[in-house]
Amino acid sequence: MDSFLAASSAPLAGAALLAAGYAAYLFWYSRFPARTGSRIRRGLPLPEFTARRLDGTEVSSRDLMGSPALLVFYRGNWCPLCVTQVKDIAKNYRKLSERGIRTVLVSPQSQEHTSDLAERFDAPMEFWIDEGLAAARALGIADIGGLPAGMGILGYENDTVLPTSILVDADGVVFHDDQTDSYRIRPEPEDYLAAFDKRGA
Length: 201
What we know:
Layout: H1 2-29, E1 50-53, E2 58-60, E3 69-73, H2 80-91, H3 93-98, E4 102-107, H4 111-118, E5 126-129, H5 134-139, E6 142-143, E7 160-161, E8 164-168, E9 174-178, H6 189-200
Parallel strand pairs: 3-4, 4-5
Antiparallel strand pairs: 1-2, 1-5, 3-8, 6-7, 8-9
């Protein structure tokens, strides 16, 4: 009887061990480093930065003044969670546009990669290129050495950005932001809409 109980409990113990190991993996290896350098503050103006449009012209965060805007800093086409986030925003673009929200997607990846992503979606969102991580550094959200091993051969730079979403009002003041600490978690478009509607209530 004892040997039967021992044999039947072994698979349960093994399953519990695997579950504990997976939970530890999710906690420790799905997390970004602490965001101690972020300069994004609700209630304060967004720090100024420059980037480039797909046509190569320079653009500034000051160009956002005059209407509320959603800025989403994503890591690149190599990041499936980032691409899914962009896809979800594209699906809800009309709801954002109806509220007068300008949608800007910013990444340090090349113009070629950015153009490839932009062409996948039938939504007039703006795609900005953060050359040399100038914008990410200005906001304190750069992820130095954050590119996963092996992705460099696909033409991506070793340094990238921490996924970050920011809502600014027409005066360029931050009224909502999401600075996730997990590779696996991104805000839903409904979160942006709720934050905007709450502010306007």
